[in-house]
Structures
1.
Amino acid sequence: MLFPIGHEDLRGRRWPVITIVIIALNVVVFLGTHWKMDEENSKIAQATWDTVQLAATHPDVQLTPSQQKIVDVFRRQYPAVIDDIKSEKGDTESGLDEEQKAAVAEQAQIAATDLGKQLDELERDSIVKNYEYYPDNTNAISLITANFLHAGWLHLIGNMWFLWLAGTVLEDAWGRPIYAVFYLVAGVVALLVQGAAMQHSIGGVLGASGAIAGAMGAFLVRFPKTRIKFLFTLFFGFRFLRWKFLAPAYAMLPLWLGEQVLSAFVPGMGGVAYWAHIGGFGFGMIVAVALKYSGVEHNVNQAIEAKVSWSADPRVEKANEALDQNQIDVAIGLLNSLVAEQPESVEAHTTLLQAYLRKQDSVSAQGEAAALCKINLKAREMELAFGNYEEYTNIGGAKFPSTEWMALCRHLEGKQNWQRAAAEYEKIATAYNGEKPSVYALISAGRINLKQLGNTAEATRLYREVQNSPVPHHEWEDAIRKGLSECGAEASAPVMAGASPIAKPN
């Protein structure tokens, strides 16, 4: 199973209010309708099947228009089912005289009339028949309401998660009014495409997936290079295996669309509104191209930037004035009071860093560079975080906080910058020699040298070093032995803590 669990552009400039409202509406509607819809669907399915059986065994019964439509669809799409029912009729009525057959026909007509009334009542009063979208009986309001109905918890949760991934960034890029209208129209277009492709279907269509497919199509056009994080799971024997990987939108979303197109043409792949997905996706791409090249998106972005433009805390402004007057300690005092209240204030930490540099307090300046790196990592501003790290090293820092340092290394691996990643891991091992982070850093550097750089000699050295480390590393023994084995080296027993890693001859 392959499932998206995030992407690089989830952080926006403002709260995604429209997306949150849409999700909340879907949840509220689901909680208020799904129990009743389950009951209604059960009744409709039973009445539909009873009608088909009755019409197949008694072709002369008078049916209501709704019943006749159901029977016609079954005769056209499932002729084998009708034939099976007819063959059973021959067995059940064989041996009856004409009077008995007439009585059976009369009872069949009564049953057909009762079923017709039941179906008509369901069409008039039920949520299913009034608010789901039926291609064979289009109800204008259902083109909106069907997008807020779901068949079950998995259906709802899956759709809302996809909406969160694609919708939040589109809302940030396009603004709330355009995004809200786009979402509703995408849902309508998706249903109409489904209706056009399946115009003789008697099944209802519900769910937000058509509108969300529109958001996915727009995401592909608007953020083609954004890397999406996927979780791949597999049951193998009695083991549950899972992998996480990153792939760009331009590679994965067209694959998803291709799957929908293929499924739409494969017989027996019912139960999913593939044509709604295809129509919504195409509509989203067209709208995204139109907004991008018409200049509308640019104008919206300027308006949003004007609304969210930053206004500095008065203490930052006073601190800058103090620095201009060379009152460095005054500026530091103001900024420290702000940091105490707002620990993640980028402006306060940035100005503090400059103040400490002017004061030539390199230790405090290093602390501010590390704090800024932590804030930017949390915000997924990786390039800014790297800039903070490099500033830390430029002012003499050697032992960067291990958690942030490791995060920067993993990002380098994600970018496939293997040489830099391996070098940084070795720096961590040196800086934290004799401490727990050195173990993970050495193993990571060894793995990169072995798997990515093909440098088995260096990988062997690194695995040997961690194997002989006095730091407890029992949980890593299997990884170390496996690494040495893949290097072609003998996985010798580790040297005990306190012993010399290399035995010297007498």
2.
Amino acid sequence: MSERLAFITACLDRTERIVDVCDRFGISEKTGHKLLQRFREAGPDGLGDRSHAPHHHPHRVAAAVANRICALRRQYPRWGAAKLHDWLHQNEASDGPWPRPAPSASCSRALA
């Protein structure tokens, strides 16, 4: 963090070109401009590391489906993912058009 602040200070000093400052700090010009942009947007707090985790998961199973799978897993702990999937497909098809999870998407946290 202190290296990033030193880089920003050197860039804002304007005695050297940004390319030369980036070269001195051992970063690419693209990274240097990215750090400057983050500093302009959020100040010193914007220079911290950011998470690479996605903000949303498009294939996530709905909470109601996950809860039902977990309940079945607790009720029938010896059933595998394929059997739970088949049971849900055969016995709860009338509950509506909620998406069926893949057999591998059974709840593992219910056993923990």
3.
Amino acid sequence: MENLNTTIRPYDPQRDEEQVYELWQRTLGQAWPLSQATFHYVTIGSTAYQPGDHVVAQMGQEVVGFVGGQAWLVPGASAPRGELMAVMVDPGYQRQGIGRALLERALDMLRTRGIDSVQLGGGGMSYFWPGVPLNLPGAWPFFEACGWVEAERSFDLVQDLSDYATPPGVYERIRLPGVTITTAVPGDAAQVLAFEAQHFPEWLPFYQRVLERGGHADVVLARHTEYGIVGVSGVVHPRAAWQSHDSLWEQLLGKDVGGVGPLGVAEDWRENGIGLALAARVTELLRERGARTAYVGWTWLVNWYGKLGYHIWQEYVMSWARVS
């Protein structure tokens, strides 16, 4: 496809990665710095990656634009999800229709994989942001001009762990007798995975990776004496042996940043203080395991996490569209 003498073609990692990473540095690197190794992992390092996922715009020998796409199948779902991970056009070539042409090609690619709904941002096996970052002034107006509609906002939260202590009463406010907060042991693996498959299938691949690589002590459980596991979260700390890459935004948050892994409580057990107790224990363990900053990605629960001292770091516009 030609557009203003620009060729739109599939991304070739061996041929294009260095130029596309340099493009990231020019377009996004000031607001969102990251290493080339991390860029590599997010774009092609996950098990969700397939050749043809991403698209570049080339003018002569120079890559001037990039769109990262992703299709991933949530366990138990009937069709894969489509995600647009990033859209970049060199500042010298913007407002010439290249961004729209890249977007259209990426959406066409996702359609060929049976996807009828696409998200800006992501939440699959790897992604840069959950939505469109508000600290990139031209980003959301571009998508809005292309017909995307804002659905809601989401947030990333952080807190300094240097003097963290769980507020009084968090564990005492668990309102159901027989519930304890513990770390997992190897014998819990099957039950953890069964819990995720039943209640939070989109998080199952994360816990499979952690447990397959021996990270049992980084899985935090809410366990009932009679009913077993009723809630799960994870400790994503800087020195976790199961981690295959650096923290995504460590150049912004510091090398010793750790995260609260996917946190969920079974529906019938919610509103009983269990979730906040899980979040508190994960935060304690992050500090114990060397994290200086705690991070919660893609949440709407600003006030809820705020009870533990977390505050807003970044805000995103969330948008989904049907593309069939």
